[in-house]
Amino acid sequence: MASANVKEAADPQEARDAYDLLTNKLGQLDAMLVMIGGEGVAAFNLMNEVMQSNYLWACQNMVEECQGLAQSLSPAIFGGAHA
Question: What residue ranges do the domains of the chain occupy?
Fold first, then answer.
């Protein structure tokens, strides 16, 4: 579910700002996911269950933020509301 409080990027500067924020968030999410794949999973498995759950929750929140940002870019890309 995309974030409901993300404003649509109506003008080119808002779209650029949303794009910059989206690429930053995706970079952060990429770094976070390194911890749960490949060799990083060993460190993840050393965390207690609550810490693992919170970590995955943070990853999910980051995905939702990215979805909201992508949705906010829709008018700039498609010229109007886009599902």
Answer: 12-75
- Which has more pLDDT, 74 or 45? 45
Span 52-66, pLDDT tens digits: 999 999 999 999 999
Q: Helix/strand/coil (H, E, C) string of the chain?
A: CCCCCCCCCCCHHHHHHHHHHHHHHHHHHHHHHHCCCHHHHHHHHHCCHHHHHHHHHHHHHHHHHHHHHHHHHHHHHHCCCCC
Residues whose CB falls within 8 Å of the CB of residue 67, separated by 6 or more in sequence, listed in order? 1, 2, 3
Closest to 59 in 3D by CA, of 30, 83, 80, 19: 30
Contacts of residue 33, Cβ cutoff 8 Å, sequence gap at least 6: 59
First CA to last CA distance, the chain = 12
